[in-house]
Model the fold of this input.
Amino acid sequence: MDKLIGFLRLMRPANIVTSIADILAGVAIAGYVVNDGNAYQWQSIGLLIFSTIGLYGGGVVLNDVFDAELDSKERPERPIPSGLITKNGAALFGIILLLAGIATAASVHITGWFSSSAMISIAIAVCAVVYDKWMKHSGFLGPLSMGVCRGLNLLLGISILPAALPQYGYIAIVPVLYIAAITMISRGEVHGGKKSTLYGAVFLYALVIAGILTVAMINNHLYAIAFVILLSAMIFPPLQKAIRNPAGPLIGKAVKAGVIALIVMNASWAAAFGAIYFALLILLLLPVSMLLAKLFAVT
Done:
């Protein structure tokens, strides 16, 4: 049982819930749930959800594998440095999760491994490993590559209707900016951060909110403003406290708030595209993620 919990800790369950929200937002953006009332099939949505669980879970597991030596000094309580899970065991687990995520994405469309969903899932897996192994500690490429992983995850949701990718694919830049902001903040989680970096995160957050509001106004779905207000209320107060005192614990709270608020950002996108009931469904993931965040580490 302890080992099972250890593997769950490696997967960051609260974060995985936010990746599911990415998929649901992508499905809504594609118009899969608003164009034809009851025409959509939950089987395809379910397959994409299982795919992102494997892809995200595999990515964060391998992150801890590559960070095992550093974590033995900075975070010895984690499953690998504590000896609960072996490094080789964790590596195998991460690889299996990534392969399962790719295989599940390939089963969404009849074109299988040649489908857009399969190609995007492979790109996510590659980007996750590249980030974990090489890009993480780069001041610019680290936040960018992590953001690209999240942007591709949104595209994975949109790929439920491949024809929607050329039309709405540009929206993937928004989660890139959002995750880049969180990654910038997280740099000071252990030893404290710099105010200039935190102000940079504020700017990126503001761009994200401006993007959502712009699309909502263009589509004349102004009820999305309520979701954006909730998003702002979740991300800015903890970040403001961290700016006043950029100590590690306060920065950690700002990072946690940003990660959990990804669900609200995705609900905002669904609302901006007119899928209000789907937006509320996504929002229901918020208490689930918050509960898991109390049981398992987010960062």
